[in-house]
Amino acid sequence: MMPNGSILRGVMRLWFYDLGSVSFLGTGLLGFALAVLISFGGDFETIGILLAMCVVSTSAAIAWQFIRLNATEWANIVPQYQRLVLKQALLICAVVVFMCAMVAILTQAFTYVLVAAALGSGFVYVCLRRPKAFFASFFLYLCIPFMDMVILAFPVSTWLLACLSIGTFLILIARHYQQASWQEQARPVYLNGMEMGWFWLPNLRSGNVVNRVERFLHPVNFFIGPMLSMMIIGLPLVAILLAAVGATFALDIPILFLMAQFSMLICALVHWSRVQRWRATELLWMMPGYSGRQGMVGAFFTAQLRLLSVLMGSVVLIIAVLAVMGSPAGTMIYSHIILSTFWGCSFVLGLGCVSRDAKQITLTMLVVIVQSAWVSWVLLLLRDESHSNGWVIAVNLCLSGIAIGALLWGKTQLWRKDILQP
């Protein structure tokens, strides 16, 4: 890809065909779309968090492209290639920050965009210095709910520190690329990210709890490994921690909304790893306990149902914790969250069984976008108690029925032709 003077040369192929960057950019687009949608309803409390998610996701996409660049040996051979990638990264960052700033100015959430930009630029620089730091992108998203507390505590100094941090990190990034070279540490990060879906969680060792969860979920966790058990255990723990922080500091953290999104992402990662590691299917088939291909398909489907039950149990547990802490949400909102999470996860699992490559798995993210928009829109409507809202439960029940059908259909498509194919 030789640049011909245009900064946009190859931008679609480089940024929107690469599954790593497009996954993060899609998450950022989701946050921006939800922020715009909520702004029409007048709910300005969560707009800052959504805009921050957009900026942070864009920063993660840029960091991923830089890691990919450093992991590619031929990048230094192609004239002006690194400079072109850097210019495109700056252009994408500028466009995203500008769009978020326009919405933020209208909704008094501009400080969130500044803090997120400072956090994202710092993350990019750290990833350039130490590529393995990219696996900490999970914690990058966990910092978003705490921005409100920092901004309220230091309203003036936050502006100054954010602006200084952005300028400093941009200068450091530019200096780094003046002497950029191939990095051996970046290659395993790139390869592992493609297989594991760019997630990292702390190693919980081989404790009894993790072992029991792994046995309970087998064989749905065969391709993704212990990471599935750690995510399932870590998700409710983080949610309870956020609930405690929100109750202590009177913060409005959309915990149930985040629980629903991460539950669907976990379901998507199950099939992402299955497609990426499809060569291991033969090893799974050779394990004792399966009566041929149909037996393996049946066991995998049953394990999917167990995974779905665990995720739904986690959501119900967090709802119970929030109710004990005195959450003002009513039964209608809780029922809406439970049902929408159920049909969202069921759709992702069903469509994941049908998927044969990583691009098709990425398309299942449309379910996440639709479910997020539906949940946000209904939550705005449920604030108006002057009208009957029983139709919300009816629609969710209909969608749940369709999702169950998609889940059953996915079972018939899983390894339909050959176990040696995804």
Give a brief description.
Helix content is about 75%, strand content about 0%. It has about 425 residues and is an all-alpha fold.
Question: What labels describe this entry?
Answer:
74% helix; transmembrane; mainly alpha; 422 residues; 2 domains
Describe the overall structure.
The chain has 422 residues and is mainly α. It has two domains: 1-200, no CATH class; 205-422, no CATH class. The chain is built from 18 helices and no strands. It has helices spanning 11-16, 19-41, 47-71, 81-106, 110-129, 137-142, 147-153, 155-178, 186-196, 208-217, 227-249, 255-276, 281-286, 292-324, 331-354, 358-363, 365-382, 390-413. The longest helix has 33 residues, at 292-324. The radius of gyration is 22 Å and the shape is globular. The two termini are 31 Å apart. The mean pLDDT is 81. Keywords: Membrane, Transmembrane, Transmembrane helix. This is ABC transporter permease. It comes from Shewanella gelidii.
Question: Over all CA atoms, what is the radius of gyration?
Answer: 22 Å
Question: Into which percentage range does the β-strand content fall?
Answer: under 5%
Domains, number:
2
Inertia-based shape: globular
Q: State the helicity in percent bands.
A: over 70%
Uncertain runs are none
Give, in order, the helices and strands: HHHHHHHHHHHHHHHHHH
Organism: Shewanella gelidii
Keywords: Membrane, Transmembrane, Transmembrane helix
Protein name: ABC transporter permease
